[in-house]
Design a protein that fits this description.
2 copies of one chain form a homodimer. In chain A, helix 4 packs across helix 9. The longest helix of chain A has 22 residues. In chain A, helix 6 links the parallel strand 12 and strand 13. In chain A, strands 3, 7, 8, 9, 10, 19 and 20 form a 7-stranded mixed sheet that branches. The first copy, chain A, is α/β, with parallel strands linked by helices. Chains A and B meet through helix 8, strand 17 and strand 18 of A and helix 8, strand 17 and strand 18 of B. Strand 18 of chain A pairs antiparallel with strand 18 of chain B.
Chain lengths: 382, 382
């Protein structure tokens, strides 16, 4: 590997055009020269997280996407409903690179000792533009993976692990003692189960299908409620009464599920109440929405008294709240347990060009629970 | 007035029966003997606030209410939908007195100096059971009304004034600088306008009808948006951009309005954003639901980024949060401005028996904006 190898490389870019079209394409971009404290990483693994899809697809109607260009330089075009263009005025006609996190080999380094020390090492990094063959990043931002960890194993070091740990931290910070999680069979949900088992925290898992229930039980989950079962609300209320969980993290966002969780929390609290209050239980019930797998409108019946809150939960906001020290503590745990607690499983490893195939877009775009795609920007086109 | 007069009196009571019926009736109850520090108040004015209706009607279907008993002792019966009975298990078969706040004349007093000092005075009081002819309360709990204030003028000293002041306090405590209020032409909304004008706080009023818009403008409101107007969302977004309001108090609860406010707040913030973020603006947008005039499900589209929160807001919880000193500061302002800022207007003054007439129930049960009923438990039956 000589220095010239990384002077330019392919990058996936998403552009919202003034005309109301979304365009996703590959561009050859120059790799910026690394500063003294920077390294150049040859990215070999970058997951497609649900949190990447907002930037990648914008508000475009991907069902109506079409493909043009060549096999190794496909161009995807999709219409954006007129009413949604106002959401994206700030990114109009800018080719935005995508990919929150990734991992790879350090193939170039600035003059500083810290940067030079990473040459040839495998590192994970967060910060956007990871769906690129080469990414320059400050050495201080790189998480050095332990010897023997591959880029694929280290690619999801940040988003899912820190989100799962962040849920547990939020629970402690806000004075709750147990957790509820939806879409619980996801990669993230499996991590959360492992953390809660290790830390002895009661976790109520909510899934939609029987196979997901079995999957979670097979990794040791103790409480799993199936929202498709006819007795879902009774079972959930029982689980909430048993665990005392008054905090839920919801990945679905839309539909009735979030409101049902609050309603069942209230029912569980009222069960043990000795005195009637017209305003319901005085115990605060909190639902955090951290994803929107269900894009239908959220429906709330309001049958959970007055002590309740619903809010958006976003990893960067949370990390800001706990500060550098808190963040470092969580990162250390991730690096130590990357092959166990925080191991991710991928449906397929795809190249940048494959990322822009319509059938592949349809697959990762549907965000099926437990299905996750890994982009290798340096994978030879198949 | 001799002591024997208040030994017993009429009291309005609401009972949820095991059989699934709500019953509202008048009972003759003994007035407890006042302790040394207590006074006996002959209640002459107690408002029917939206917050009283939860205890009064429970989850009963009042459209199906029927009346029996005599003209001076009517009995109202209404069915409770089976699915809602679980909300009221804690009050089953208990005759619950109703009425959060009221005012009247002190007609009896315990031996302490503080209690004796109130004899013959007009006081306001909060604490439930105000739809009663006589109410015993600790002297320390009574707000002594200034000379010349009638019970009717002082009857709504607590709930609406403290709620309106609480909104402004919440705004300051949580770092917002302007407010949005729905059902803004209500008694409470008018108070809030007077407070905001006096304190130089930008207030975005949302109403549903043109007459309400005119009413608010006639008392000096500067910004009024009509949610029935075709350009409502544009006008609201303009108002939010102008004022920078990122906190809203919503009395309606159900329907789309709450979500629309968050969405317009986000649109106003994105307008001035220099950089695109897939997660939307990082400025926190907060909606507090303090009533549920609209009983339909709440519908949220989620088109307001990730920095948002929705929650229940309840006066007692808020007062607990600001502590005794904070509460006393707010109460003093109310007593000083009871005939101006905090003046209430009533549609009619009704007796206890009139409170249980089906046509009157239908009138105050619909909670029409700006319509408010005052019960005088000692009014001679008309």
């Amino acid at each position: 590997m000589t220095e010239t190898d990384y002077r330019e490389g392919l990058q996936l870019q998403s552009t919202v055009k003034q005309s109301g079209q979304l365009e996703i394409a590959l561009a050859t971009v120059e790799t910026p020269a690394p500063g003294p404290d920077d390294v150049v990483i040859r990215i070999e693994a970058a997951p497609i997280n649900p949190s990447d899809l907002g930037l990648l697809f914008g508000p475009a109607d991907m069902q109506a996407a079409t493909s043009s260009g060549s096999a190794d330089r496909p161009v995807i075009t999709a219409p954006i409903p007129a009413g949604l263009m106002k959401m994206v005025t700030a990114r109009l006609d800018q080719a935005m690179p995508v990919g929150n996190e990734g991992a790879g080999i350090v193939v170039g380094a600035g003059s500083s000792e810290a940067a030079q020390a990473l040459l040839g090492k495998t590192v994970a990094v967060i910060g956007g533009a990871m769906y690129s063959q080469y990414r320059v990043a400050p050495a201080a931002m790189c998480l050095l993976l332990t010897e023997g960890t591959t880029p694929a194993e280290g690619a999801s070091c940040f988003v899912n692990p820190l989100t799962a740990l962040g849920m547990v931290e939020t629970m402690r910070l806000e004075g709750h003692s147990a957790l509820v999680h939806t879409a619980a069979a996801s990669n993230l949900g499996q991590m959360l189960n492992k953390i809660c088992l290790a830390d002895d925290i009661a976790l109520v898992n909510i899934v939609r299908r029987e196979e997901q229930e079995e999957l979670l039980r097979s990794i040791g989950a103790k409480i799993v409620c199936n929202s498709s079962a006819p007795d879902f609300k009774e079972k959930l209320t029982d689980a909430l009464a048993d665990t005392g969980a008054t905090l839920a993290f919801d990945a679905t966002g839309g539909g009735k599920l979030g409101g049902q969780i609050l309603s069942c929390m209230e029912a569980a609290l009222v069960r043990s109440a000795s005195e009637y209050s017209g305003y319901g239980s005085t115990t605060h019930k909190q639902l955090y929405v951290y994803g929107r797998l269900d894009r239908s409108p959220t429906e709330l019946l309001g049958d959970y008294g007055m002590a309740w809150g619903i809010g958006g939960w976003l990893l960067p906001h949370f990390l800001q709240k706990i500060g550098l020290e808190g963040g470092a503590r969580l990162r250390t745990r991730v690096a130590d347990e990357i092959k166990t607690t925080f191991a991710s499983h991928y449906t397929a490893e795809i190249s940048l060009a494959e990322t822009l195939e319509l059938k592949t877009i349809a697959a990762y775009g549907k965000q099926a629970t437990g299905e996750k795609y890994l982009i290798n920007p340096n994978k030879n086109p198949s």
